Amino acid sequence: MSHRPVLLFVLAVVLTPPARAADFVVKMPEGRELPRRPKKLGTPYAWAAAKGYLPRQLPAQDAEPSGAPAAEFAEKFILTDEWQPEGQKGVYYLLSTALEDGSGYRHHGWVEARCCIREPFALKNSFRIHRKAMVVNTVRSVREGLDRERTLAEVPVLLGPQADGPQAAPFSLFSIYFIYADSNPGDPEQGFFLLGKQPTFQPNKVGDAARVVLGWVPKGRVCQWDTREALEWDVASTRPGTARRRADPGQVYATPEDARKALEDPKMVRPLFVEPFDDDGVSLQRRREERDPGFMRYPIIPIKDPKNQITTPDRGILYKVGFVGSFVDEKGRELASSEEVEDIQRVLGRLRREMELTEILFVIDATASMEKYYRAAAETILAIVKAVREDKGRKVRIAVTSYKDFEAAKGQTIDDAVTSRKLVDANDASVGEIAESMKAQAKEGLAGGGDAREQMFHGLRRGLRDAVFSQFARKVVVLIGDMGSHDPGGDGKGKTEREIARQLVAVEAGKDGKPFLDRSPIELYALQVIDPMKSADAQAFKDQVQKILACAAEELDKVGLKELKKGGYLCETDAGEVARRILARFDELREQSDRLTLQVEKLQRGQWADLKIGAELERILQSELRDPDKFDKLRRSRGAQVFHEGYVWQKASPEVLQVRLKYLVSGGDLAQLVQALEKLSQPPSQRLTGRQMVELLLGTAIGEKVSFYDARLKADGLQVKSPLLLHSFGPADGTPLTREEEQELERVRKKYFLLEDILKNRVRDFAETERDIGAGEKVKVWKLKGEPRGRTREFHLYGDKDAVYFWLDHEEEWP
Predict the structure, then answer these.
(1) Residue bearing the bigger pLDDT, 610 or 92
(2) CA-CA-CA-CA torsion for 199, 201, 203, 209, nearest 10 degrees?
C-alpha cells in the first residue's frame, strides 16, 4: 500500500469534518451509472472492518476520498456493488446507506474488500467447522550484551488490517476466538486475522457486529484450531489400585526434538509444562472438570512437517497441542498461575451470565378499581415477551404477584390476599398464559376491594421472597396500585418499609465486620394510577413507597453505593402511558445490563487498559473473587497470560494412556446424535444401518453432513477397526451381525444412555448383565438402575447464550 492511503487511513478521524450527502463524490468505473438497488451478493450488507478508512471516489487504491466520513469499526452499510480492477487481485465494495425517504441510496464510496466483513458469521474450514483461533502471548528472551532477559511479547489488537493502524486494548487473558476475515487468504503466514468472540452476530440488531467482532491480530501470533479435537490428562491411570498405575506426571515439551530426547533421558530436557498431581499422586484434571465443565483442554494442532509426525511403539502418537500458561508481567515474571487465572475467569463468567439477565417482578393491585391497569400490565408483559422472542440476545425472566385484601370473618388469612409466582424465562409458555389470564380477569371484572387500602406491603414481601431473583441480574419490581397499604405489625415509624427495603438491598456483614453487598440491588419502580391528592389513602401509597425508597438508599449508603439511586415513584393515570413507562424502564434496564456485561467481557479478555467500571461491579468483584487484591494487581500490570504450543506423548508406556482424546460438540450436534442413537432400542427393522451409523458419527465428529463414500476417517478411534463399522464396509445391509458386532452394538446402546444423560445434565448408574443371542452365545448388556443424579456438563462459549457445548470423551462416551 502506498504512503498516501496509509496517511488517509490513520488521520481520517482527526481531519475529516462532518459531511452532507451532497458532499459525497462517488463514481462508477467505465462511466457506468451508480446503482439504484443493492447488488445480489448474498447478504446485502457489509460492515466496515477498518477504523478511520476513508471511502474512495473510484475503486482504486490511489483514488481521491469521496468526502464521506471515515467509517467506524464494524459500522453497517448496504453493499450496492463490487469491482475488481483489471490486472489486480484486490476487490472493492461500494458501501451505501438508504435515504430516509426510501427514494434511493446515499453512496459513501468504494472500500477495499479486505477492510470489510461480508457475512454475520465466522469463516468455516473445509469440514464446515467454524475457524477458531487463540492469541499467542509468549515470554521470549532478548540478548543485550552478555545479559539474557525474559520479556513479554504481547499481541497487538488492531482496528484495521495493517500494523500502523489504530489499536484496541490487547487481550491479556486467554480465550477462544472465531475468525471472521483473512486479509491475505493466499498466505498462511502474512497478513491479519479478524477475530470475534462468538461464531455469529445478529445482522439486523444495531451495534451487534461491533459487540462481537473485536479486532485484527497478526497471523504469526495466532494459533488456529480448526477441529473439534483436544486432549486432557488421563486421570484414571493415576488413581491408587489401578493396574499399571502411572506414577510420573505428564509433560509438554517445547519442540519435537525435546520430546525425542525425553524418551532417552527425561532429566536431559526441561519441559514447558508438567501435569499437576495432588498429594496422593492423582492428576488434578478431574477437580478442574468438577469446578468448571467447560475448562479449556489442550487443542490438537496439525503438524505440517512430515518429519515431526512421529509415532513410537511405546509412547504412541506425538501430538502438537496448545495450552494456557500463567499470567506474567512485562518482564516475564509470574504474577498468577494458570489455575488462579482460571478461578478468576470462572467468577467473571458467572457474573457475565447473570448480568446479561433482566428480571422483572410485577406486583399489582388486583381489585376492581384497577381493571384497566391490570389489562395494561398484561399487555406490557406480552410486549416484553414479543421483544425477547424477536431479539435472541435478550435474556429476561418475568413473574407476576397480585394482591388485594382478606376477610378474616370468612376464615381467610393475610396470605389469602396474595398470589405470588416464581420468575420464569420470558420465552416460557406460562408467561404468555399468565398475561392472557390477566386480560381475561380484567375483562370479566376483578373482585371488589372492600375498604380503600389493600395488602400492598404483604404483596411486596411475598413477591420478593417467592420470585427467587438471581444474584447479579438487573432486577426491578414494578409496583402498580392506587391506594396505600394496611400495616399490621407496623410501628408507625417505617418498620415495615425498612424490612421491605432490606429485601430490595441485601447488605450483609463481612468477616471483618464491614458491610458488603450480597447481591446486586433490586430496583423498586412504583406507578400510582390515581392522583395522591384525592384522599389520605391515596397519599399513603406515595408516602409508603417513598419511605421504602429512602430506606433502600440508606442500605446502599452503608456500602458506599447510594449514588446508584435504585428505583423511583411516578404518578400516571393513563393506562396506555403506564404500559409505555414500563416498557421504557425495561429498555433502560437492558441498556444497563449491556453496559455491565460489556465491562465484564472486557475483564474476561483482560482488556482493562483505560477500562472504567462502576462502583457496583467493583463491590461485587471484591466480594466474589477469592483473591481480589491479586486481580487488582493483574489489572494494574502491563502483563498477559501466556499461551504456548508444545508437544505431548499419547502414552506413558505401551499399555498406559497419558492423555485422552476429547471432542468439543455443540448442543445441537449432541441432540441430533442422541435422537438418532435412540433408534438402537427399536426393532431391528427400524434401527440405523451400519452405513447410516458411519455417516452420523463422522458427520458429528467433523461438523458436516457426510456421505458414506466421502467419509473421512480422521479421528484415531474412527479408523475402520470397530466390528460394527467394518460390517458396514463389508456385506450388504441386512446381513446378520456376528457376536462381536452384537457386543459392540450393546456398547453403543450404553453410550446412548450416557449421551442422553449428558444432554440433560444428569448421571445414572448401570447394572451389568447378559443377553442370549442364540447358538449358545451371550453378550454383555448394561441396564439402567436407580434414580438420576444432577451433574452439569454443558457450558456456553464466550458470551453466546445460545451456543451450548459439551466435551465428550472419545473412549468412554463417543459411540
Answers:
(1) 92
(2) -110
Per the CB < 8 A criterion, the answer to whether 336 and 606 are in contact is: no
β-pairing verdict for 640-649 and 192-196: unpaired
Q: Provide the 3-class DSSP secondary structure of residue 676.
A: helix
**Which residues are CB-neighbours of 490 under 8 A, at least 6 positions away?**
457, 496
Strand partners, 194: 181, 216
Give the helix ranges, DSSP H, for 429-531.
429-444, 456-467, 495-504
Q: Please report, rounded to a whole number, the percentage of residues in the chain having pLDDT higher than 70.
A: 85
Q: Which of 60, 73, 75 is nearest to 30 (CA)?
A: 60
333 and 319 in contact (C-beta within 8 Å)? no
- Which three cell numbers, joined as nine digits, stand for 19? 459531511
Contact between residue 589 and residue 358 where contact means Cβ atoms under 8 Å apart: yes
Secondary structure string (H, E, C) spanning 313-366: CCCEEEEEEEEEEEEECCCCCEEECHHHHHHHHHHHHHHHHHHCEEEEEEEEEC
Residues 6+ positions from 292 with CB-CB distance below 8 Å? 342, 346, 795
List, for residues 471-480, the tens digit of each pLDDT value: 889 999 999 9
Q: What is the predicted pLDDT for the residue at 708?
A: 38
Of residues 462 and 130, which shows the higher confidence score? 462
Q: With 0-12 CB in 10 A as exposed, 13-18 as middle and 19+ as buried, what is 339? A: middle
Q: CB pairs under 8 A, 24+ apart, for 772-779?
A: 773/739, 773/742, 777/739, 779/739, 779/742, 779/743, 779/746
Shortest CA distance to 156 belongs to which of 167, 140, 141? Answer: 167
Partners of 663 in the β-ladder: 229, 808
Region 365-392 average pLDDT = 89
Helix, strand, coil percentages in the chain from 3-state DSSP, rounded to 5? 35, 25, 40
pLDDT of 1 reads: 37
Q: d(Cα 769, Cα 57) in Å, to the nearest integer?
A: 78
**How do residues 62-115 score in pLDDT, each as one tens digit?**
899 999 999 999 999 999 999 998 877 789 999 999 888 777 889 999 999 999
**pLDDT above 80: residue 413:** yes
Nearest to 41 by CA among 107, 98, 91: 91
Query: How far, in Å, CA of 401 to CA of 403, rounded?
Result: 7
Residue partners of 403: CB distance under 8 A and separation at least 6: 363, 364, 365, 366, 417, 418, 419, 454, 455, 456, 458, 459, 462
Phi and psi of 343, rounded to 5°? -65, -40
What nine digits make up the cell of 119?
Answer: 457475512
Instruction: State the average pLDDT over residues 721-749.
Output: 65
pLDDT (tens digit, 9 = 90+) per residue, 168-218? 999 999 988 999 999 998 888 899 999 999 888 989 888 899 999 999 999
C-beta atoms surrounding 683 within 10 Å: 7
CB atoms within 10 A of CB 101: 6
Q: Is the pLDDT confidence value at 548 over 90?
A: yes
